[in-house]
Amino acid sequence: MDDLDRRIINTLQKGFPICDAPYRRVAASLNLTETELLARLQNLLDDGTLTRFGPLYNAEQGGGALTLAAVKAPAERLDEIAEIINAFPEVAHHYARNHALNLWFVLATETPEQLAKTLAAIAQQTGLTVYNLPKLKEYFVNLHLEA
Questions:
Q1: How many domains does the chain have?
Q2: Which of 9, 29, 49, 114 is an S-S bond match for 44, by CB 3.0 to 4.6 Å?
Q3: Looking at the structure, do residues 78 and 122 belong to the same domain, yes or no?
Q4: What is the CATH number of the domain that holds 91?
């Protein structure tokens, strides 16, 4: 990641314009062409620097539900369990941890009832206890990369 990539990330974290040509507007603010900006974003995704680029919605404000959950997956079944969990469209992402609860994942659903049903379905399909770890307080961490 070079200084321009850092500037792109910093700029996009401040907000994304709602207009007919948002990438063109962001690119112009960075003295780039729209094509250059899109290529840079694609490279950051391809090389794993960014794992996702897109909007974050507050599911709860829209009547939905959001939670962090975890399971104790046996090491020999970790990949299998991850595949089962990732097959649920409600799962935003997952990650392995060096902890007794070694597979963590985030769920977002349209309703609180759907959240409970999805957690139960994951428990049933994996054969594991699913620990629901809903947020008690929301924090916003602003990442700024030195360019």
A1: 2
A2: 49
A3: yes
A4: 3.30.70.3460
Domain that holds residue 75: 65-133
Same domain, 70 and 40: no
Specify whether 89 is located in the same domain as 38: no
pTM of the model: 0.67
Only one residue has tokens 């957690």, namely 119
Judge contact between 103 and 126, C-beta under 8 A.
no
Give the length of the chain: 147
C-alpha distances (whole Å) from 53 to each of 16, 22, 78 are 11, 14, 26
pLDDT, tens digit (0-9, with 9 covering 90-100), for 33-85: 999 999 999 999 999 888 788 777 777 888 899 999 999 999 999 999 999 99
Q: Do residues 41 and 8 make contact, with C-beta atoms less than 8 angstroms apart?
A: yes
